[in-house]
Amino acid sequence: MSHDELLTVETDPRGVCTLALNNPAKHNAFNDEVIAALRNKLNEIAQDDKVRILVLTGNGKSFSSGADLEWMKAAAQHDEETNQKDSEALAKLMRTLYEYDKPTVARINGSAFGGALGLIACCDMAIATRSAQFSFTEVRFGLIPAVIAPYVIKAIGERQTRRLFLTAERFSSELAEKIGLVHQVVDDQSLDDTIKIAVDKLLKAGPLSVQACKCLIRSLSPDFDDESSARLIAQLRASVEGQEGMSAFFEKRPPNWINQN
Description:
Radius of gyration: 18 Å
Mean pLDDT: 91
């Protein structure tokens, strides 16, 4: 797919821009091309004075399955330096979304896994369908969610993060709401109406006041080092365990750290 096909963008007369990941056949999984296209599009939208609110979603039945596993498998064969560059690109995307001046709303139309949960945690508001499921899947592949970790911890706290990062278990949208990953859960058919209500509330606020509020909140929140996070995941991608995890998945067998006795 070309860069123009990886995303869809639609802006209504009120200045509400809906930006959607557009690869439903792969459950909107992302790779280096999608990461670059998404960051470029976010920067482009940020310069458009007509846009007041950004709604981030996925086309099809999934929000996003996270990193494309074939891309991850190829990355495991790269050296640590190349992997760090890839990880830093993802880190820049997350920071771009987190520091976005305009209000951001995650329209979670379906399940979200791995790095996609970082996108959700970076948004100001998150509304999910009742049928959506979530999981931080990385440790199942011998990897870690290093790049998204700071944003997830800000959203759900250290205690919940410990459990969900370490178990990689799937959890429901109801639990996601309970722990603070999403703000509201609605029936699938009510999603768009609920998004509209949320957007209407945001449109009543002064645009400059909203930007100032976001800046204030960020200034009161501890910052973190993107490079260190990227280095951690780069090291694991190139590690024996990371390569074993990817190989086991594609060979449809348990990884060697699972005792078969």
